[in-house]
Amino acid sequence: MQPLSPATLLVLVPLLPLVGAVLTLALGRVLGSRAHLPAIAGIAAAATVAVMLLLGTSNQVGSAHGPHAEPVRPVEMITTLWQWAAVQDAYVPPASSAAAIPGTAVGGAGSAARAFTIPVALRLDPLTATLLAIITCIGLVVAVYSIGYMHHDPGYPRFFAVFSLFVFSMSMLVAASNFLVVYVFWEAVGACSYLLIGFWFTKPEAARAAKKAFLVNRVGDFGLAIATFLLWMTYGTLDFHDTLSPDGTILPGILGQTRLADAGGIVGGAVGTAICLCLLLAACGKSAQLPLHVWLPDAMEGPTPASALIHAATMVTAGIYLVARSAPLFVACPDALAAVSIVGATTALVAGLIATVQNDLKRVLAYSTISQLGYMFASLGTGTLLGFTAAIFHLVTHAFFKALLFLGAGSVMHSMGGVIDMRRFGGLRRVMPITAATFLIGSLALAGVAPFSGFFSKDEILATLHAKGWPNAHGEHHDAAPASHASLSLPLERVRSTSAPAAMRLASHARSPAPAAILDTPETFRTLFWMALATAGLTAFYTFRAVFMTFTGPTRVPDEAGHHAHESPPVMALPLMILAVPSAVAGWWLFSSQWLAHFLTATPSFSAPAVMATAVPHAFHMDLAIQGSLAAAIGIVIAAIGHLGRRSDGPQMERFLGPLQTFFANRCYIDQLYAGLVVRPLEGLAFAAALFDRFVIDGLVNGIARLPAALGGVVRRLQAGLLQRYALAGVMGVLAIVFVLAWRLRG
Amino acid sequence: MLPDLSPGVLLAGAVTAAAASLWLLLPRGAESRAARWLGLVLGAVALAGLVAAGRRLGSLGEEGVFLTVALVAVVSGAATIVTRSPVYSAIWFALSLAGVAGVLLVLGAQFLGVATIVVYAGAILVMFLFVLMLAQPSGLASYDRVSNEPLLSAVAGAVLLGLLSLSIGRLSSDASCCAPPTRAAAVVTAAGNAVSPGSRRGLSEDTMKPGAEATGSAQAAAGDAADPLAVDQVARLGGELFGRHLLAVEVAGVLLLAALIGAIAIVARGEAALEDDRRLAAEGSRR
Amino acid sequence: MMPLVAAGSTALLHNALLVGAILFALGLVGILTRRNLIVMFLSAELMLQGISVSLVAWSRYHGDFGGHVLVIFVLTVAACEAAVALVFVLQAFARTGRLDAAAWQALREATLPRAVDHALPASDAIPPRWPRLARAGIEPPADDAAALEREHV
Hints:
Structural class of chain C: mainly alpha
Strand content of chain A: under 5%
Number of domains of chain A: 3
Structural class of chain A: mainly alpha
Order of helices and strands of chain C: HHHH
Oligomer: heterotrimer
Strand order of the largest sheet of chain A: 1-2
CATH class of one domain in chain C: Mainly Alpha
Distance between the termini of chain C: 59 Å
Number of helices of chain C: 4
Radius of gyration of chain A: 31 Å
CATH topology of one domain in chain C: Helix Hairpins
Shape of chain A: globular
Helix content of chain A: 55-70%
């Protein structure tokens, strides 16, 4: 049997879950309580294939160390499945538009008319391979967990069908190589999210939360649509990759290597900033960033496994993926980049503050997710290679430990008969030790305690923010590295040897003069750094507050638990243990080996000269690590003072916050603000429209209907039943005829 | 006698007066002597106007005879419809029939004049009277004292009369619209030749002097074809009727037979239906 | 022998047609206004007489027997009509006890009230029938249908 080609394997990753979804949907009733089999088989096979692809791509990229180390070259593989749409001569670049002409005038076809083509193309590069592996592997673990969690639910087959469909959609989203296809699956994951949030659709809160998630996401999707239009107008293509036109010329894709090699290939200025801000809006919607974060806490109405996979580990990272994928576009627009950072850091801080006073375990985790996603955005917004890789690094580790935490919360909820209010728990470590232990591991990772995975990724994010805030001082941390970017130390020096000078040269005569940055100043990033550091402390505090409230203190089990109050079954406990391993060690391994950072560098988007120019040598920043750990330690200590060993329903230390507690408990009144600003006026408008419809439109229609009746009412009075009156009417007619005849006889 | 009015104004005035008269005279519930007198006066005015609108026939005797019988017919007809009591109405109608018979005689239709008297006055009217005697309650019924829409109906009738008389009045001014057929034209021509050669082309009444010679020449000119004015005109009418119109006569006989049978059938069936009605009405009232 | 006016005389034709028109109009007014079925029939016959006069006048004018023959048929049809119609009138009378054309109002629109005569003087009104005294405290039953069928108001 021949080994399957990477292209086939790439197609298999989304295809297998899709087949699983269709089978589950078709055979769900037949399979009954075994309805998980097709879905899990599909996801497991996809996970296997994805890991194979990851390893294969890794081999292609080459090792970061060792004797065979060589300059990193972009690794990219495109498989075009079919041509979705093709319109000939759809786009003629304006003659004056420099950006419309690709960076290299290959074949001189820069200003010729181009076709509008939408190829359904899948791509394989390090970024995609990493995300595919994360999606399918965590999807598999969560699916196995769901067997226990969703047991006896009437919608069992439906859950696995949608779950599998989500894995398919998400795989397609990260594998698609065209903005329109990305948009399609962007919507598809939104639809899956909607279906899973509203899984218990008979519950009004769930239905409302699903609706809310869908509507809020629409705002972001609108941004993506506008961005797609702008991209088409600007670049004349929607492909990521370069395509070879029939006449042999290369048509550069937006993120293709041809365009990326040219410093002026990416449009900056107002148009570029607009594109980036629209993309940022889309990312904010999907990744629940301020100001569109309001849907994610409510999305916790869905089943906990769905929350773990979709609303913590994978789907909400689609925004991160989109910004990371579009990194070259953002790098060309410093202000948009800074906006990404500002949004991210602000979200991180605000969500962290709100999380400190939440009493619902899943909601704490939801705000924590928002906060951590904000971290990733803050990192992305620095616009450095380290920032991008750190964001993806944090994405990976966060996927592990946040899925673990959610599954742990689900385990608690499952055992406690559906109760999720932390004030009603206490000392559960004695009731469910495995859950408690794994939850503690996840919490340590989330809080950023030293050897656990969250520590390393968070440290990198702090480092990249610090580097932007103190560009000169940062250099001084590394004695070997001068402040200038022109010469950089190991190990990336060898990477730079070929590409960097060219990038610098191209950048020096960029077609558009660099505008004076408004937001992209060191002062901004200094502020953001302190916000991120404060968020680290807050994260540690609320995480351990939840741990202490739930698992320590006197043992208290809510009445709803009944005889359920025991450790979850193995099918649920096993995934917890599996996830605990990477949560604990993945950070250390990935950081120390620099495998991920090196691997991601081969992504075309990150290997663009403009991005590569910002590469810094890998280093462990002891001072930053100390600062981060100190913040975490302070948070944990405060949480311990307030909650360790106490009854969780007693007076809590939040009361010292005074009015701020109310403010945060009401989620900073953002929902109320939206209700006042958007919902109420729209409802008023709808009410006015309803009134208009009821009184004007209906009145018109009814009036028209009443017109014949009114006329009939007039004429009806003539129908008196008197024969002679009828005869008189007849005579009138005769008279008319006689009159006409006499008139004509008049001559 | 009457002021010299243009024919249109004369006719308009006459029919207006006739309408007002009828409206005043028709039964309207409340009886008013003044209204009745006013109606009679207006009726007289209308008659005078209509007489003035008539054409001179030439000889005073003929005019007198025609005027008399026509007035009898018209006045009795008007009385027929304005009289409250239906019995009196029937009698006025009989008188009107006599007048009509007179007009028919003047028009030279002796057989029809007599037949009208015999058939109508002798048969149909008597049948009406029988019915009246069967059905009429003692005294005046309420429905005999009121009319249905008297004003509108009178105006409608007057407008109809006005339009008809205007059209009729155009006979003299434009004879081409209704020129007599060849045979009659021959008769006229012959008469004109015989009596007054100087005015042969017109159809004006001045030239229309009747005379035995004219009749005779007309007969001669028209050959032995049907002539309503012939001495043996009843025999000729019979010949016409049973010659050219034999099929129509047979159909008319069948029609009479059908009417006879139908009337009997309706009476016979009607009795049963009447019983049903009474039973239903009784049930309805019980409910 | 009647005095004879020459055939083709427009004067005689005019006058005769005028008489016919007057009779026709009188009959029309009668049939439209009079409520007694018999009088309505008399009016119809009056209209027929007007037509007969006109037909004979034209026959005289044209100098042939066409009008005469038509009048004979008019007489025939009038006889038939009288026979059949009188039977109907008798049947109608047998049902209502009246020869009133307005007694047959059932074909009117259901929502319209029955037409009643307002013009009759009070002296002609049917003497009022006083209602029987109901027992004290009970509203006497109102017969709306009977009220609608009343002839006088």
